[in-house]
Amino acid sequence: MQAAVNNVTAGETICVAAGSYTENVNVNEHLTLIGEGADVVTVTANSSSDHVFNVTADQVNISVFTATGAIGIDKTGIYLSGRQHCNISENNCPDNNRGIDLYSSSDNTLTGNNASNNDCGIRLYSSSDNTLTGNTANSNNYYGIYLRYSSNNLIYNNYFNNTNNAYDYGNNQWNITKTAGANIIGGPFLGGNYWSDYTGVDTDADGLGDTMLPYNSSGNITNGGDFHPLVVQTDTTPPVITITTPEPYGLYTVGMELDFSATDDESGVDTVVGTLTNTSEVSQDDESGFAPDVGVYTLVVTATDNASNTNVSDPVFFVVYDPDGGHATGGGWFCPDDESTLSPDGKANFGFTARYKNDVSTGKLNFQYMYAADDIGAPR
């Protein structure tokens, strides 16, 4: 890789194929370095007492590498010294003394990098007017992000989960104005950063903290802080169930297929199961698209989302019959005899035999009457 850097023309792009490389790369020319993927391109420091990538030129872009093994004191996965207008993005920088380090550098952008499992995740020293967004600093031994003699940096939509998340006694901006858009923890608004030790409350359920503001990392951010810390939202809403087929009290020929689904806009649907129960109280679980045999059924659909919220549909009664087996349907008037007394909310039961399958006849029909108040009991 160093040989390619040494022979490149200013402004050119070097694409690095998947593989493991052992070297310390000195980037001393305006260029773009792109790995095939941070998960498949690993650059390990040949000398652990030197930086993996040492950027000594302006307008350098470094993307999608894993840079590791710079464990010497003050040594870094990706190091910028006195540089401007560089873009460092989508890199993974674990197991170094520092993951990413900007020294006396300004107007650079750090986006989507993972600087975890180092002594210090991200450091800015005597650096200003840089933008850091979408980065992760997790499980670093000392600080997730450390700023010294650094001001006017914009730091938002990053993920910090460390024993000490931040140190800053300059004047830096730790959030933007609340803006619609997916944030780093999946919330609906951009604002500040996610802090593992923020204990405030999101009172209006927008995914941004509303109490204990500004977040200041237990006083380690001495001027201002994060006024819109990101909060993990708890999904308490169950999925919405839709049953297209069968319709309530529907009559279907054999071969019909169940058609049901569920949606969940928060955590997403995990499982959807339909439970069919026949007149013998025998139940079975089926998926949408299942074709039940001839019979009389009740369908109940149960849906669970990825936050373990569950919804259960109302029962849907329906019949599946064989048109070649013979069947009967009908209607008419039901009238009491002269000695019967029926109240407006009464029910009357009568036997009814319906053949819906060859050589099988069974059934009992429950009848609920409707009446007009002025002629109840009148012969029909």
CATH level-four homologous superfamily name of the largest domain: Single-stranded right-handed beta-helix, Pectin lyase-like
Name given to the CATH architecture of the largest domain? 3 Solenoid
State the name of the first-level CATH class of the largest domain.
Mainly Beta
Helix content: under 10%
What is the overall number of helices? 1
Number of domain modules: 3
| Class of secondary structure makeup | mainly beta
**Overall shape:** elongated
Whole-angstrom Rg: 34 Å
Distance between the termini: 98 Å
- Estimated share of beta-strand residues: 35-45%
Main sheet: strands, sense, barrel? 7 strands, parallel
Number of DSSP strand runs? 32
Low-pLDDT stretches are 328-334, 346-357, 360-380
> What is the name of the CATH topology of the largest domain?
Pectate Lyase C-like
Average pLDDT figure: 88
Strand order within the widest sheet? 1-4-7-10-12-14-17
